[in-house]
Automatic annotation (TrEMBL):
The keyword Membrane applies. The chain crosses the membrane at residues 20-41, 142-161. PANTHER family: SENSOR HISTIDINE KINASE TRCS (PTHR45436:SF5), SENSOR HISTIDINE KINASE YKOH (PTHR45436). It holds the Pfam family HisKA. InterPro entries: HAMP_dom, HATPase_C_sf, HATPase_dom, His_kinase_dom, HisK_dim/P_dom, HisK_dim/P_sf, TCS_sensor_his_kinase. It catalyses: ATP + protein L-histidine = ADP + protein N-phospho-L-histidine. Keywords: Kinase, Membrane, Phosphoprotein, Transferase, Transmembrane, Transmembrane helix, Two-component regulatory system. GO terms for molecular function: kinase activity. It comes from Nonomuraea angiospora. Residues 224-416 form the Histidine kinase domain. This is histidine kinase. Its EC number is 2.7.13.3. It is found in: Cell membrane. Residues 166-216 form the HAMP domain.
Length: 428
């Protein structure tokens, strides 16, 4: 439960997720629309204010001209020193009345209107401050309204994106399970109208079905071949033993032993693939069991055991794993080969060229040694070791040492000692 909550929290805080990308896209689109609408409203309101200002200025100018013609008095604004030079130039050049918006002082804008009458330049000015303050208030209201809409729209967009995001995460989890070997995993994601996510989910499920069918066919083929070879192989073994002693006989017997080992490995792999193997767990003293396993290989190994660890595992299968790892280290690596037992972790290391990158990335594959410098072989030893580790519930990892050499680490289950003596089994 806590892991699920933590994973959900990481998903919410991941700004690269599809949810926040959709929310950001909605926010950008909303800002663009708000900016376009705001500019249009601002410009329209400004033009309307200018038009009203010019009308008021013309009306005041007509009244001033009429008063000048009746009384001969000029408005106080008609002082040539106060009239803007631009406006004076306009009325002198055209002889018509003209207006000019004076925003030289933004805090006190004016709308001027002027006309030549009887050789005199009559001018009036109208205060445009209220109109401009109203326009500024309108701009602020537009910005505040846009921000208020964004504060509601962005969370709603993130929530709306959660459903497809959840479906995509489910498809991704299914794909990861398939990549980890669970070919029975299915996303079962359905959507109305057959959208793109449903197509992706159906493709992943179809791929899993195809991989499962191919793997089952491969497993059946391996098992059938191994079983069919077993009977003629036993005949070869018996016939080789009946041959007279000679160098050629010894060579034939050696090749028959190699073939017998290969067939037995194929049979073991087929049983592991079929899931027919079951672990017989019991408390196992690792110092004794690992030491006996190493001794039975007949190979030179440096064994180091820290303490007196006891693991909950299957001694027979553990012996098989240790033997395969040691044999692989000698076959594909270089001496010295070291086996270190520390707690319930068993580390097998050689000093050769190390594991190939393909094995580190994809794990061991049957009939694939990975690189020529790793030596010859069928690629079955590590495959069997990994399969047996899964049967006993252990973890087997592969890595390369910084100073050279391959490292295989087996992590076993710890054993909690009960009170009183415990009878420890011997490997069979």
């Amino acid at each position: 439960m806590g892991h699920a909550i933590a994973q959900a929290a990481r998903g919410l805080l991941n700004w690269r997720s599809l949810r926040w990308k959709i929310a950001a896209l909605v926010a950008v689109a909303s800002c663009a629309v708000a900016l376009a609408v705001g500019v249009l409203v601002h410009q329209s309101t400004f033009e309307r204010s200018m038009s009203l200002g010019r009308d008021r200025a013309f009306t005041a100018l007509l009244l001033a001209v009429d008063d000048y013609r009746r009384t001969g008095s000029t408005p106080a604004d008609s002082d040539p020193a106060q009239i803007p030079p631009v406006l004076l130039q306009q009325i002198r050049g055209t002889g018509q009345s003209s207006t000019w918006y004076d925003d030289r002082r933004p805090d006190t804008p004016w709308m001027w209107a002027a006309q030549h009458v009887g050789g005199e330049a009559l001018a009036v000015q109208i205060d445009m401050g209220p109109e401009m303050r109203s326009l500024q208030a309108l701009d602020r209201h537009i910005v505040m309204a846009s921000l208020a809409v964004l504060t509601v729209l962005v969370p709603l967009a993130a929530l709306a994106a959660e459903l497809p995001n959840r479906r995509l995460r489910r498809v991704a989890r299914t794909a990861r399970r398939i990549a980890e070997g669970d070919l029975g995993a299915r996303s079962k994601v359905r959507g109305r109208g057959g959208d793109e996510i449903s197509d992706i989910a159906a493709t992943v499920d179809s791929m899993a079905d195809s991989l499962r069918d191919r793997l089952l066919a491969e497993q059946r083929f391996t098992a059938d071949v191994a079983h069919e070879l077993r009977t003629p192989l036993m005949g070869l073994v018996i016939s080789a033993e009946l041959l007279p002693e000679s160098e050629a006989t010894e060579l034939v017997r050696d090749r028959v032993r190699v073939l017998r080992t290969l067939v037995e490995d194929l049979l073991e792999i087929s049983r592991l693939d079929a899931g027919a193997e079951r672990a017989d767990r019991a408390p196992v003293p690792l110092s004794r069991v690992v030491g006996e396993s190493v001794g039975r290989t007949g190979l030179q190994v440096r064994l180091k055991v820290t303490g007196d660890p006891v693991a909950d595992t299957d001694a027979r299968r553990l012996d098989r794993i240790i033997a395969n790892l040691v044999a692989n280290a000698h076959r594909h690596g270089r001496p010295p080969v070291e086996v270190n037992v520390d707690g319930t972790s068993i580390v097998v290391r050689d000093h050769g060229p190390g594991f190939p990158g393909e094995l580190l990335a994809d794990g061991p594959q049957r009939f694939r040694t990975g690189a020529a410098e790793r030596g010859r072989g069928h690629g079955l030893g590590l495959t069997i070791a990994l399969g047996q580790a899964r049967v006993i519930g252990a973890g087997l990892t592969f890595a390369n040492a910084p100073d050279g050499g391959a490292i295989a680490t087996l992590h076993l289950r710890d054993y909690t000692r009960p009170e009183g003596p415990v009878a420890l089994p011997r490997p069979r």
